[in-house]
Recover the amino acids of this structure.
């Protein structure tokens, strides 16, 4: 099992190296007018396109996520508003409950007063019955003494109230008895009136209770309805959150895929660079580069394109496994050449200007600007000669402009496919690149 795994790893590494080697040696080709800057390997370009597509998907998912978050916030605001209404109604229900408690207590108190009056009325009835009994005893005594007409009238009464209907007769019996009966009746009437008032009061309290119970029932129905809306809002919010989580997961997935692709890109680029460095070393062994750090320019047919900087970091000729370098690279061996003035090496007319590259920094692959040259200028001279100034940070001339020897055409940069700040200087004769060295006297 261990040997099988080791073999698998070995084959995988061999495949990577084989692919990278093929990319580095066989796929690197010139795609633009002057062709000295190799284009990115096809695999790197494909990965770059896939990363670009993933970034677009990430942007779309992020926009969707932002919209979902806004909707979630809106649902949360609705939920909070509903909850505030529920809290307000609950407070009102609490007040109604307090009122119901008070009303129930009042009803109980009134019922107690009614029961107490009923007791007083019952006692009053007893007192009346006792007074009537005493009255009848006196009437019997009157009957015995011979006043049978009065006694007959009263004794013949069917009840106490029938007797009262004959008050004229009773009044003649005795003043004392008449006052007694009237006093008892007045007390009875007062007690009955008090009871009637209490019963009426109790009825009003019962109505108040019913009203409060109706209000409480309505509040409860409102809370039930609001709670249903809260549940609906929560469900909508949960659904939106699920979509937001899915969008976030998609974003993370695309980012992870991009990280993997970028890692793969870096591995391929690193292998390409290794192959390039190896080829350049082999080329330098076969064609030694004559460089002149701190070289003092003594003159040639053309003036020096970057006054003050005479270090040639890469000469004209094959490099990078056989790829032709159609010019020389002028760099710095000490102080930085970045931003140094680049001048026309002879009088002529500006016949080509390419700008728009903002990628002014060291790179391991082409940024794709202007065929890898970044910002550059071409000046046409006499006798079919023309010169190229590439990787400029800035351009100071325009198409059709006449220039003299020493006219500043731009400043040294690292735009396009450039591994560092330098000027790529090329010379063409009748449209074909030639070695600039003899024209510069180096």
């Amino acid at each position: 099992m261990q040997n099988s795994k080791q073999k698998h790893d070995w084959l995988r590494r061999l495949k990577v190296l084989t692919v990278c080697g093929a990319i580095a040696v066989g796929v690197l080709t010139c795609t633009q007018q002057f062709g000295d800057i190799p284009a990115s390997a096809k695999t790197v370009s494909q990965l770059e396109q896939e990363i670009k597509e993933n970034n677009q998907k990430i942007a779309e998912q992020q926009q969707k996520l932002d919209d979902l978050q806004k909707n979630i916030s809106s649902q949360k605001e609705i939920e909070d508003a509903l909850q505030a209404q529920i809290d307000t109604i609950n407070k009102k229900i609490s007040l109604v409950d307090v009122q119901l408690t008070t009303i129930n207590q009042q009803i109980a108190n009134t019922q107690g007063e009614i029961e107490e009056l009923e007791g007083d009325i019952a006692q009053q009835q007893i007192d009346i019955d006792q007074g009537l009994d005493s009255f009848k005893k006196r009437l019997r005594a009157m009957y015995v003494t011979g006043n049978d007409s009065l006694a007959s009238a009263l004794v013949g009464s069917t009840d106490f109230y029938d007797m009262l209907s004959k008050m004229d007769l009773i009044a003649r019996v005795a003043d004392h008895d008449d006052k007694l009966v009237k006093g008892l009746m007045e007390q009875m009437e007062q007690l009955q009136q008090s009871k009637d008032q209490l019963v009426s009061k109790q009825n009003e309290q019962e109505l108040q209770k019913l009203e409060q119970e109706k209000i409480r029932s309505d509040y409860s129905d409102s809370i039930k309805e609001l709670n249903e809306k809260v549940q609906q809002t929560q469900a909508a919010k949960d659904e939106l959150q699920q979509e937001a989580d899915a969008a976030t997961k998609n974003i993370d997935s695309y980012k992870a895929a991009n990280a993997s692709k970028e890692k793969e890109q870096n591995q391929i680029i690193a292998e390409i660079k290794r192959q390039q460095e190896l080829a350049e070393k082999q080329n330098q062994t076969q064609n030694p580069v004559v460089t002149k750090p701190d070289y003092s320019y003594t003159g040639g047919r053309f003036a020096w394109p970057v006054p003050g900087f005479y270090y040639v970091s890469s000469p004209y000729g094959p490099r990078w496994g056989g790829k032709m370098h159609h010019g020389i690279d002028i760099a710095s061996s000490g102080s930085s050449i970045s931003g140094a003035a680049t001048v026309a090496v002879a009088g002529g007319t500006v016949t080509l200007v390419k700008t728009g590259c903002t990628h002014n920094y060291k790179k391991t692959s082409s940024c794709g600007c202007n065929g890898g040259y970044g910002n550059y200028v071409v000046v046409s001279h006499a006798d079919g000669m023309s010169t190229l100034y590439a990787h400029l940070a800035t351009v100071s001339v325009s198409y059709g402009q006449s220039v003299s020897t020493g006219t500043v055409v731009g400043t040294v940069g690292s735009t396009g496919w450039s591994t560092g700040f330098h000027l790529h200087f090329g010379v063409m004769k009748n449209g074909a690149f030639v070695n600039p060295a003899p024209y510069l006297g180096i």
In short: The chain has two domains: 40-286, 291-440. The first strand starts at residue 311 and ends at 314. The longest helix spans residues 175-286.
